[in-house]
Amino acid sequence: MRNDVILKAKDLSKTFSNESVQQHVLKNLSLEVYKGDFTVVMGNSGSGKSTLLYALSGMDRPTLGTITYYVDDDSKGTKKEEGIEISKFSNDKLAMFRRNHAGFVFQQNYLNDSMSALDNVMVSGLLRNKDRKALAEKAKKLLERVEINERDSKKFPAQLSGGQQQRVAVVRGVINSPEVLFADEPTGALNSQNTTNVLDILSELNSEGQSIVMVTHTLKAAERGSRIIYLADGVISDECDLGEYAGDYQDDENPDKEKARKRHEKLKDFLQAMGW
Amino acid sequence: MYRRMIINDLKKNRLVSAAVCIFMAISACFIGLTVLLFASLLGSVDKLMTEAKTCDFLQMHSGDMDQEELKAFAKTREDVEDMLVSSFLNMDNSIISLNGRLLTDSTQDNGFCVQNKNFDYMLGMDNEILKPEEGTVYVPVCYKNEYDLEKGQIMKVCDIEFVIGGFLRDSQMNSMMASSKRFLVNPADYMRLEQYGSTEYLIEFLIKDGYDINAFSTAYGDAGLPCNGPKITAPLIRMMNALSDGVMILVILLVSVVVLIISLICIRYIVITGMEKDRKEAGMLKALGLSGKDIKNVYILKYMLLSLAGGVAGGGAAFAVSGPLGRQMRMLYGPAGNTAGIIMVSLAGIVLTEFIILCFVRGILGKNDRLSAVEAIRDSGFIAKRKTDSLMWISVVMAAALFLMLVPLNLASTVSSGKFVSYMGVGQSQIRMDIRQCDDIKRVSKDIYEKLRRDARVERSALMQTMSYRASVNGEENVELLTEEGNHTVFPLKFISGREPLAEGEIALSMLMAQELSCDTGDTILLYRSEKAESYTICGIYSDITNGGKTAKIYSDPLSGITDERPDVIWSIIYIDLKSGEDMTAWINEYQGYFNEYGNSVKIVDIAQYMDGTYGQTIRRIKLAAFTSILVSCLIIFIVILLFTRLKIWQEKKDIVLKKAIGVSCYHIRRDYLVQTLFYILAGILTGIVMGIVPGQMLAGKLMGMFGAAGFRFILDRRMVYLIIPFISLIVAILGVRTATREAVTIKITPEL
Ligand SMILES: Nc1ncnc2c1ncn2[C@@H]1O[C@H](COP(=O)(O)OP(=O)(O)O)[C@@H](O)[C@H]1O
Ligand SMILES: [Mg+2]
Fold this sequence. Notes:
Chain A has helices at residues 49-56, 91-101, 117-126, 132-145, 150-153, 162-174, 192-207, 219-222, 258-273; strands at residues 5-18, 21-34, 38-43, 64-69, 84-85, 102-105, 180-184, 211-215, 227-232, 235-241. By secondary structure, chain A is an alpha/beta fold. Chain A has one domain: P-loop containing nucleotide triphosphate hydrolases (Rossmann fold, 3-Layer(aba) Sandwich), CATH 3.40.50.300. In chain A, the strands form two sheets. A six-stranded mixed sheet of chain A has the order 6-7-8-3-9-10, with helices on both faces. In chain A, helix 3 crosses helix 4 (132-145), helix 3 (117-126) runs parallel beside helix 6 and helix 6 (162-174) runs parallel beside helix 7 (192-207). Chain A is globular. Chain B folds into four domains: 1-47 and 244-280 and 292-368, no CATH class; 64-227, no CATH class; 389-421 and 615-753, no CATH class; 422-613, no CATH class. Helix content of chain B is 52%, strand content 18%. Chain B has 21 helices and 22 strands. Chain B is globular and about 100 Å long. Chain B starts with a helix and ends in a 7-residue tail after the last helix. The complex binds adenosine-5'-diphosphate (ADP) and magnesium ion. Adenosine-5'-diphosphate binds next to strand 1, strand 2 and helix 1 of chain A. Residues 16, 18, 23, 25, 43, 45-51 of chain A line the site of adenosine-5'-diphosphate.
């Protein structure tokens, strides 16, 4: 039994033209994302994962096709049933939309070097939330949850470790309680310990109801997903449902817990079938 | 939060922020200064003209006149508020001395007048209406500095002595561009002086408000009233007043414009590189949901802060500097009336400058904000890196800086060069002998000249005798022509067209004279050298600033040419060159001894010394200006080169790290930068030299042309222009590069790889 659809992409195409050479990266792709899911997009390098993510999240416009969000919009006073179609929005309108409904985490954390960790979170928060005091409270609580203490939160990004920085970035991504959190290989630049750490945070957020769309090419990260979508050559070749095995995440390649082992098997089989 | 972002950014980029702020401050300072000085000048002139009740219409007239006729005319006109006829006692400059110095080299018509009754007052230094006692004279304030005068010193007219009771502001003739100067005396003294000069009349009218001065002027002309002389209206008087000190302001304006352009170039470059550097962070902010407009606003806010600081600093500097710079102006024209208004206008100028800069910045931000969030986030090679044009701008700024150095420098070298006198209408000789005010100038000069011809130490000499002839062109004009007779080939003048007169029947005119008579080489002039008119062909036009720039020259044999039927010689000049190796001072002293019998009427001067005495002050001021602008330009070069190179290094940080990683030494990296930049620095220097000479000469020529010196060419100090200045600029530029590349050494390899 699926949850409500939160985001619906229909017949997406994305074409890049570079000096007379045209490259069709997304080809007539359709996809529905469900509320509360931890959707993982996998695929070979260059298959168009990031391009898809950017299109879905309203960072970039598709060449063709529509993207409809089923969310309440306070600024327009529309209800979620009506849906908001964003594929034709102007840059500024897209920016407005993103600040209200989407959160981001990237491979490189892209924190603002000239601001403290807390300020980085605040900048994002202030875009939506005008109550500075309440916001600061929320930011501090979230940072504490990801084990960034008060002292570290006053430090500048350069003074923090890569793992800490990425955790700050995750907090920044969810500070506005976005309907969907988008993550593009959030652990790509981290070591094993920090990877687990960040993934745990994402899993925890998801278990609390946060919808997440994450691009990854590691098995370890993909395992956290409830639904795996495999992208090949700009189209979705297949998908795999891991929802029933959620929880009990381990770092081990040969997990002893029953649930974890089954999930591991299923994912492996799926990827093998995809020729991964 | 934006505030915090901006403050952090300013802190992080201290050098760049400071540089932007400095450029904004300098621009504000120069433009503010220009506006401030100009507004003060206009304000002062306006106040002076109001308090002195300057007339609206002035007709000068020499010759007979009938006052009743004028009064009758005035009565019939409903637009005339008041009229007066003021007499002006024109004196020969050679009989006036101020504090022991004769006014012979004055280019002005000097004369006396008494205080007027109802308007056109001569005012004192507190703008009070002056009433001189018997025996005192008030001297035009423009002579105070020129002749270094103090209250209580003595002015002599022939043998009559006056005590200088103070200085006067003459709202009509204060400007050095007005060709007459009025000295104010008591009516009784005026009567005593009358025998020494010739009377001219100033027929003046006050026109009621709301009536057209030009209409009145036409009506006056049509009425057949006295009009032998120039006619001037209040707007012209105002303009001449404003122009006199305007030259300095013009120079400052020129500098302001160059400085503003340099500032804009630098700011443009800084803004672009800054954006390039912040690209990732800006992209990130966009991804989070800031619109392009929001980000632009953050930048604008930042530059607004900087421009606020720059504007305050620059404005403060402008107000501080305007004090000393405006001293001369305040002395000539008095305090300005509407101080609050002037300050407002100047502030408006400063605000406008900053506004222009901000608009410019806004434009740049707009143009360079094409990067979408995705493009910024994707750190891939898809986005073509913007080509940096910093090196080309180095050339532009170098050229501008050199221009700024060379124009004043060339002006200084030209003015102080010995050859420059030929532009002024004076032969280029070593010694000059003036014979004036004695009973028989004709005979005395001939005697002296013959004596000189027998002196073996004299290499060459030429006798020039000046007379005033009536002349007419096309049968219409009837002018007095101050004509110098003699052999003009010995010490040639600077001819704009044609050549010097070589035989009887040829005449050369000064440029201003030719302009006034609107004739050219080849035209003929009728000259009344005796009762009978003789026809002369114009053989050339020369540059001259003596005697108001309006003179003529004809050929005559120095010994036999000037016979007794000719009118009196007004003065004679003998130009002399000694043979090389002769002691000039000794020679002058010896001759001065011979001529003691003539008293003051024969004067021998060493031209170099004479020039220094007369124009030394001006030349020194120009030299100071040249020196200052060299310093300022060097500073600009250093800052700009340092800045540009440093920004370039930032941009190329990755390359540097890579180079270091593969083992290229810091020495080589620094040398590479120097070699890269050097070409552009040299190109800039070359362009600057050319610009400083060619357009610079045109600019200076225009300025000199206003005073009658035509065909102006820079006399270059070659060593300075081609060697020293380029060398200094090069050294400063290299110093800038070296200082900037020192940072390249400190870049660490690890974090970037
Ligand atoms: N801005 C762009 N211009 C041209 N080609 C692009 C651009 N962005 C992505 N591509 C191309 O699109 C393809 C998919 O890229 P991407 O979505 O980053 O793949 P993935 O994230 O799956 O590795 C790649 O082949 C890449 O070359
Ligand atoms: Mg990717």
